[in-house]
Design a protein that fits this description.
Growth Hormone, Chain: A; single chain; mainly alpha; globular; 459 residues
């Protein structure tokens, strides 16, 4: 493993700063490439939706064009993410950017029929899981210690900001020229590929050809790792629970605004509700990361997990749209503060060589759970009022998150899991980036690299 900048800080020292993180050239390159790709993606979603609707005048096909971007995660996210560990991270990200660039250029061609546009969008988004998995696995090589926590906070908050900016810019440009918006997206992928190529070091793959088995088996190892280790499983439960409840106001915003817009225009009410959660997410990620020391932030994971659904329970009182937006923003704030800490701990508790696959499991699970939550609450809203559905759903969420918080592993168990992952990663590095042979038979066997206390805590 190539050397990284040390960030081992004394316990009494304050948290890492933004300048600490952005002072690293590799992080600046990776961050900029990601932001460009994110904004381009959201610009393209707005453009493709408008383009398909203009070509077909079909709301169903227009919605299908939007939904096509989520299908790869639902159909094969973990499997595609496993590819990121077979090849060099830089190589994977560059290839994915260039594939998406080419697909967007083809979509922009005026001769493309709607069915071809849908097929090309689907093909382009197949590159999302391996690209994002490679990025997630690469970040711990660039950032260590508290820099990692701050970097993840910046990245997740920037992703939310990119969503807001991308949709606004995309809708504005696409209304005048969908082709121009799609070409802009293609250009963002080209710039991202250039930043990755010239801004990142070319690290060897974590899995060599000699240690490969079968892609399905490697993917299954990712599932066993995430749900087979208590600390990783506990983090997964909190993350999945948080998104299960925080997505509901955004998913039901259109119907909520149509039925209860009050004095506001329906479109304005919908926009305010939909934008509130991302805005709160951005503020939560940035403020909690800056205001609290590293050790204190870890103690906030459980309270924030419970707080996320708690703040939506007052929806039972049928508040006006602006108050709904405030509730959604408060929920977003809690989730935004929780996610970087959970992500950082998750990365630290993962052994080198399994990070991309574990990311695929988590990202795919998040996508599926969000979609399921919106579908379930939408079906309930056919029988009950939306305030009752959102408030009742959130009240159930409070109970679920309380159980998850009470089942959270003891600090000694968390520490032992991190030590076990670091020991396994050190053994992998000493072996020349080859996965330990025991890992091919089963992930948990890697725990034998640490002492008896750690083995007992992790199991």
């Amino acid at each position: 493993m190539e050397a990284t900048v040390s960030d081992e800080r004394p316990a009494q020292e304050g948290p890492a700063t933004f300048s600490d993180v952005f002072g690293l050239a590799e992080f600046r390159a990776l961050f900029t490439a990601n932001v460009l790709s994110w904004i381009g993606d959201y610009v393209a979603k707005a453009a493709v939706t408008i383009l398909v609707y203009r070509e077909t005048e079909s709301v169903a096909l227009s919605a299908a064009a939007f939904a096509a971007s989520y299908l790869p995660w639902l159909l094969g996210g973990p499997l595609l993410s496993a590819l990121a560990e077979r090849y060099r991270y830089r190589q994977v990200m560059m290839a994915c950017d260039l594939v998406r660039m080419a697909m967007m250029v083809l979509v922009a061609l005026p001769v493309m029929p709607p069915w071809a546009i849908l097929a090309l969008i689907f093909a382009a988004t197949l590159a999302n899981p391996p690209s994002q998995a490679a990025r997630s696995a690469l970040i711990p090589h660039i950032l260590t210690g508290d820099r990692l926590m701050v970097g993840l906070s910046i990245s997740t908050s920037s992703g939310q900001a990119a969503q807001v900016v991308g949709y606004m810019v995309g809708a504005a440009i696409a209304s005048a020229s969908p082709t121009a918006a799609l070409l802009i997206n293609a250009a963002t992928f080209a710039l991202s590929a250039a930043l990755v190529r010239f801004g990142l070091r070319d690290r060897p793959p974590t899995m060599t050809a000699a240690h490969r088995s079968h892609l399905l088996r490697e993917t299954a190892q990712g599932f066993r790792l995430v749900f087979g280790r208590p600390v990783l499983r506990a983090i997964a439960v909190l993350v999945f629970g948080a998104v299960l409840f925080s997505i509901v106001p955004e998913g039901l915003a259109a119907a909520w605004a149509a039925e209860r817009s009050g004095d506001l225009d329906t479109g304005v009410a919908q926009a305010v509700i939909m934008a509130a959660n991302p805005v709160g997410y951005i503020l939560g990620g940035l403020l909690i990361g800056r205001l609290f020391a590293p050790a204190r932030r870890l103690t906030l994971i459980r309270p924030l997990a419970v707080l996320a659904p708690v703040v939506l329970v007052p929806a039972l009182l049928d508040p006006p749209p602006l108050m709904v937006a405030l509730l959604a923003a408060a929920c977003g704030f809690a989730v935004g503060g929780l996610m970087p800490m959970a992500n950082g701990l998750f990365v630290r508790a993962l052994p080198e060589g399994y990070r991309a696959r574990a990311f695929g499991v988590m990202a795919s699970g998040t996508q599926v759970i969000q979609g399921a939550a919106v579908l379930a609450t939408g079906a309930l809203a056919e029988r009950f009022t939306i305030p009752v559905v959102v408030g009742g759903w959130s009240a159930a969420g409070v109970l679920l998150m309380l159980v998850a918080a009470l089942a959270w592993p003891r600090p000694q168990t968390v520490e032992a899991a991190v030590e076990a992952a670091q020991a396994t990663s050190a053994g992998t590095a000493a072996a020349g980036h080859h996965l330990p042979p025991v890992a091919r038979a089963g992930i948990p066997a890697a725990r034998s690299t640490v002492g008896e206390r750690s083995r007992q805590a992790v199991t």
